[in-house]
Amino acid sequence: MSKLPSLKNLSYLLALHQEQNFNRAAAECNVSQSTLSSGIQNLEEQLDCQLIERDHKSFLFTALGEEVVEKARDIISASEELLHYAQGQGNIMEGPLRLGIIPTIAPFVIGELSKNLQDKFPKLLLQLSEDTTQNLLHRLRNGELDILLLALPMDIQGNQKWILGRDPFKLVLHKDLAETVGEPVDYDKLPDRSIFLLEKEHCMTGHAVAACQLTDSIKMNPFTATSLHSLVQMADARLGATFVPQMAIDQGILENTALVSLKPTGQEASRDIGLVYRPTTSRRQTFRKVAEEIARLLPVNTLN
Amino acid sequence: MSKLPSLKNLSYLLALHQEQNFNRAAAECNVSQSTLSSGIQNLEEQLDCQLIERDHKSFLFTALGEEVVEKARDIISASEELLHYAQGQGNIMEGPLRLGIIPTIAPFVIGELSKNLQDKFPKLLLQLSEDTTQNLLHRLRNGELDILLLALPMDIQGNQKWILGRDPFKLVLHKDLAETVGEPVDYDKLPDRSIFLLEKEHCMTGHAVAACQLTDSIKMNPFTATSLHSLVQMADARLGATFVPQMAIDQGILENTALVSLKPTGQEASRDIGLVYRPTTSRRQTFRKVAEEIARLLPVNTLN
DNA sequence: ATTTTTAATTGGTATTTTCGATTATCATAA
DNA sequence: TTATGATAATCGAAAATACCAATTAAAAAT
Question: Which of A235, A281, B172, B265 has its CA 20 to 30 A from that of A27?
Answer without folding.
Answer: A281
